[in-house]
Amino acid sequence: MALPEHFKSTNAGGGVIQDSASSASLCGVLAGRERATNFSSDKKGCDGKLTAYASTQAHSSIEKAVRIAGLGSDNLRLIEVDDHFALRPEALAKQIEQDKQNGLTPCFVCATVGTTSSNAIDPLGAIGKICRQHNIYLHVDAAMAGTAALCPEFRHIHQALELADSYCFNPHKWMFTNFDCDCFYVADKNRLIRTLTIMPEYLRNKPTESGAVIDYRDWHIPLGRRFRSLKLWFVIRHYGLEGLRHHVRRHVELARDFARRVQASEDFELAVKPPLNLVCFRHVGGDEFNKRIMDQLNQSGLLYLTHTVLNDRFTLRLSVGQTHTQARHVENAWRLLQKTAAQLQQP
Fold first, then answer.
1. What's the pLDDT at 195?
2. In the chain, which stretches have pLDDT less than 70?
3. pLDDT (tens digit, 9 = 90+) per residue, 252-272?
4. Distance between CA atoms of 339 and 311, rounded to whole angstroms?
5. Are 137 and 109 in contact (CB under 8 A)?
6. Which pLDDT belongs to residue 190?
């Protein structure tokens, strides 16, 4: 995946398997909080002046993390997005400056590589520079799309990732691994460990004190942890790197083929050009008609669509990411969509 060197355990950073990106984001918020307060928040709690930032398209787990970490949802700034639903750096910079002028302390920014609604990719370079300028912790959430970086031709999604303080992606989403399995990397493991470490007498031992072992209990919220690495190892062992790349490339190709069918249709339209394997589209008949299409198709059991709202319009979503998905499945999905729309238009 060509991740930055500072995420490797041979340097100051390191990686750990979390249960999900939600937990990884929470750890990022906590680490950012403690960096901004010189670890005083762990002892005294938050003072209501810490602020966090993400785009309006960021996953809901960011708001949950901000709540759990004690910053409060009122101190989460949701930054407007551009025509491709990616965070606007100039709007982020303006909001940070405004908060600082009002006596607040920006402590955490989440950039998303592959938003849930539309697979939008936030501009990491511009966001990273803003965070460096203001000494703000930057976490990159690539839960779904990160797997694409297995393929060299898709690694542009990680451009400027070296500016991030932490990063995560979910093998249980697009890397064919059973739930749950999230890979979480940090640039400074000592900051994370200091944020989360509690050492009662019953946990003291010589290997830990000597540094001979890595206690991953200090890298996440729960004390105990499951043996998640084994199932991930089996997936990598079974497919191999080239096998994984084959499936990722094929899924992107199938999604683009579906998008071309939508573009060529007079009845359907794309909501946004698909960056990878998620296609956001809609029928030109309006919101209620699209809801009827989705409900009827989902009730049929032949196809399952999800939805979102983009630019205040109900939008259908087709994701290509299942292990055994083939061209005939995508072709059949398109035929079913056309057939269902035609049936619903009949008097």
1. 94
2. none
3. 999 999 999 999 999 999 999
4. 27
5. yes
6. 92
What CATH homologous superfamily does 240-345 map to?
A: Aspartate Aminotransferase, domain 1 (3.90.1150.10)
Tokens of 114: 């592959």
The predicted structure's pLDDT at residue 346: 84
- Which CATH architecture is the domain 5-226 placed in? 3-Layer(aba) Sandwich (3.40)
What is d(CA 302, CA 221) in angstroms, rounded to the nearest whole number? 40
217: tokens are 């209990």
pLDDT of residue 60: 95
Give me the pLDDT at residue 326, please.
94
**Token pair listed for 174:** 């697009």
CB-based burial, 51-71: b 16+ in 10 Å, e otherwise: bbbbbebbbebbbebbbebbb
Give the residue extent of every domain in the chain. 5-226, 240-345
pLDDT (0 to 100) of residue 3: 93
105, two tokens: 């302390």
Measured between alpha carbons, how far is 246 from 150 in angstroms, rounded to an integer? 10
